[in-house]
Amino acid sequence: MDSKGLTGSPLAITGTFLDEISHDIPSANWGCEDWAKDFAAMRQDGIDTVILIRAGYRDRATFPSKVLAKLHPTLIVDEDLVALFLGLAEQEGMTFFLGTYDSGDYWLQGNYQAEIDLNLAFADEVWERYGSSPAFGGWYISHEINTFDLGMMQVYEQLSQHLRCLKPLPILISPYIRGRKQFAQAISLEEHEREWDQVFARLQGKVDCVAFQDGQIDFAELPDYLAVNAALAQRYGIACWSNIESFDRDVHIKFPPIAWPKLRFKLEAAQAAGVDKLITFEYSHFLSPNSIYPAAHNLNRRYRNWVKSLSLQGSNDDPNNSDNG
């Protein structure tokens, strides 16, 4: 493996979410040295993009935000993780996307304007504190949807307009498919296509990248949904990434690292659909050699060996390769 990491295969995962403000997976309780070690591992595995999944959630924050402290006087924050992640991203040559704030309340209750107003002020604060970092290369609107929602279109539209005024960086969203692994009333492929045709028609020119989560539907259905997602995104000029979930939804505990055959299936399905980039939720817990889960260490080893074997195979098949001359 060279210093650039696993970059020789189109099946390599090149982006990951950073999930330190979570509501459904445990904290690794890492400090600065632990994060530095993991960023180095990410780079070795070919990751060039890191996405902070949310800079704050309810009463928790990744830095001591004055804006959020007005809403939550007892704000739970330890150290400035945004500064730490930006510094590590710069050190490792990565692009950092900053996730917005999720109130866990306003938008879920239909009070969309309150969610918007809070995020506008929060974005201003974020940009004032961190906008000069050379690693700050994109925004992630952290609110996740699965179908067309008029109120959420307003959230996306007003937020994206404001973020572009601060600096016209790429804007990413990561919606999910209303699949049977989460919902009793799952959406059909035809309904999904109609819904997202409406969404993309509204978000054209406002969102640059979409990374659908890939874990909510059966594996047999996944290739068809990935193909629809890629075709719709291309129609509206939006880059189509795939959010490869590296955790397993099929077991009875939340959530262990995924079984390697399932991860490989999803990687191959995403490539077959012609997506532009593979990212994961998320490396540090489920795919890292430093993970708190021993099974993730094994998954990382199998993933690395597989991508390396594909890269070597590609080199051997290249008629311009000097070894074949």
From TrEMBL:
Species of origin: Thermostichus vulcanus str. 'Rupite'
Q: Which residues form the DUF4434 domain?
A: 13-293
InterPro entries, sorted: DUF4434
The protein here is known as DUF4434 domain-containing protein
Where on the tree of life does the source sit, at the highest rank? Bacteria
Gene3D superfamilies found in the cross-reference section: Glycosidases
